[in-house]
Amino acid sequence: MGKGQKLYKKAKKLIPGGTMLLSKRPEMFLPENWPSYFSRAKGCKIWDLEGKELIDMSIMSIGTNTLGYGHDDVDNAVFEVIKKGNMSTLCCPEEVKLAEKLVEINPWAEMVRFARSGGEANSIAIRIARAASGKDKVAICGYHGWHDWYLSANLKSGDNLSGHLLPGLYTAGVPSTLKDSVLTFQYNNYEELLSLVKNNDIGIIKMEVVRNFSPEDNFLQKVRKLATDKNIILIFDECSSGFRETFGGIHKKFGVEPDMAMFGKTIGNGYALTAVLGKKPIMEAAQKTFISSTFWTERIGPTASLATLKVMEEIRSWEIITEIGKKMQLGWKDLASQNNLEIEIYGIPAMSSYSFKSINSLAYKTLITQEMLKKGILASTSFYASIAHKSSYMEKYFNELNEVYKIIKKCEKKEIDINKILEGPICHSGFKRLN
User: Fold this and answer.
1) Is 293 left (phi over 0), alpha (psi -120 to 50) or beta?
2) Rounded to an integer, what distance in angstroms lies between the CA atom of residue 429 and that of residue 234?
3) b/e per residue, 220-239, with b = 16+ CB within 10 A?
C-alpha cells in the first residue's frame, strides 16, 4: 500500500467522507489504489507522496487550472502580494480592479460581488435574486452547489437532482420547510419549464447554459423571452463553463444574456475566487439583506484572477483548450471504432466525458484508471483540458489507452472476465457513505 492510500485511511477516521470534495474521493476513481495526495504540481504533471511523476490526463483539479498547474505569471503575481500582505483592516484595491475588468468583459452586467467557492457564489446569487424579486420559488436546471436552497429540491421526491448532479444525495439537515421552494426542469425541455412557471409563482430561473448537451430549437432564447415576459430573474451558472469557449461566459456563444451570472474555477487558475455579476437594479438588492464574510476580502484571489485573465486574453486560452478538447474527443471516437466498442461522448470539448455502452461501463472505467496509472498517467473517462496538455502528452495517452481498449474489447467478447483483472473494487458512480 502506497503512502497516499495509508494517509487516506487515516483521513477517513478524522474527516467525515475522507475528503472535502466528493469529486476527489479516491473511490470515485480507483478504490484502494488511487494515489490520493500530491506533493507538488506543475503544468499538467503531478508528483505523489512518493515522488512518482504522473501526467494528469483527467480532471485537472476539477477544471480549475486551464493554464496548467503553477503558471508562472499567476504564481508570481500572488508571491508579490504575499510579500506585501494578504489581509489588513483596509480593503485590497485588486477587488475593485477585478470587478471593473469583469464588467468590461460582460457589458450587460454592472455590479459584482466576490466569494471564494462556487457553492457560496450560487447561494449569494439566489439570496440577491430572491431579495430583488420578492419571490421564494426557483426553477433550476443543472448543478449549483451544496447549500440548503439547492438540496431542498430533493425534499419533494428524494431524487429530483439525480439528473442534475448525482443520484442518492441525502437531505439530512436541510429544513423540511424548504420543500417545494426549488423545482427542477430538464435541459432542452422548454414545455416542462413553461409548466413550472404557469403553475408556480416562480421568481427566478437558474440554469447552466450548457453542460453535457447543446441547446436545441432555440431553447436558450425561449428561456430568455419567458423570463423577460414574466418578470423572472434569469441566472446563468457559469462556474464550470465560463472562459472555456469564449473570453467570458459561454452564453456569448449563443447570443443570450442573463440578468445575473456566476464565474468560478477557471478565473483564478487554482486560486480561490468566484464572482457574482448582475444588472444594477438586481445586484443592489444585496443591500436589503445580509451577505458578508471576512475571507472574501483577502487579496490572493483577486490578484490571481487579474493575472489569470491577463494571460487568457493574451494567448486566447479558450481557443487553445477547445482545440485540445476536440482532439481528445476525436481520439476517443477513433480508438472506440478501432476496437469495435460503443461509447457516448458528452460535454463541451474543454470539459469532455464519455461512457461505455455496456453493463460493465463502471468496471471498464475502473480498469482504465488502474492500467493507465501503471504507465504514469492519471486517467478516467473525463478530461478537462489545459494549455499545458501538449501534443506529446496526448500521443502517449492515446498509445497507452489503446492497449486498455484492446483488453476491454476482449472483455466485451467474453474472452476475459473483467472482474478477474480488476485489482480492487469498482469505482463509485455517485454518493455513498464511506464511514
Assistant:
1) beta
2) 31
3) bebbbebbeeeebbbbbbbb
CA 358, 364, 370 angle in degrees (round to 5)? 175
Are the C-beta atoms of 411 and 417 separated by less than 8 Å?
Answer: yes
Residue in 146, 141, 102, 72 with CA at minimum distance from that of residue 305: 102
Per DSSP, the three-state class of 289 is coil
Instruction: Pick the closest to residue 53 from 41, 63, 64 (CA basis).
Output: 41
- pLDDT at residue 435 greater than cutoff 70: no
- Reduced to 3 states (helix: H, G, I; strand: E, B; else coil), residue 184 is strand
Q: How far apart (Å, rounded) are the C-alpha atoms in residues 274 and 267?
A: 8
Given a cut of 80, is residue 432 above it in pLDDT?
A: no
Position 158 scores a pLDDT of 63
Average pLDDT estimate for 66-84: 98
Tell which residue, 208, 229, 230, 204, has the closest CA to residue 219: 208
DSSP letters of 212-257? SS---TTHHHHHHHHHHHTTPEEEEEETTTTTSSSSS-THHHHT--
- Find how far residue 270's CA is from the centre of its chain: 13
Those residues with Cβ within 8 angstroms of residue 311's Cβ, 6 or more apart along the chain or in another chain: 67, 71, 73, 74, 269, 317
Of 65, 432, 414, 420, nearest in space to 272 by CA: 65
- 321's enclosing H/E stretch is helix 317-338
Burial of 358 (C-beta count, 10 Å sphere; 0-12/13-18/19+): middle
**What are the beta bridge partners of residue 140?**
184, 206
CA dihedral 167, 169, 171, 172 (to 10 degrees): 140
Q: Is the pTM of this model over 0.90?
A: yes
pLDDT for 429: 84
DSSP helix/strand/coil, 140: strand
Distance separating the N- and C-terminal Cα atoms of the chain: 20
Give residue 261's Cα distance to chain centre.
Answer: 15
Domains of the chain by range and CATH? Answer: 3-70+316-421 (3.90.1150.10), 72-315 (3.40.640.10)
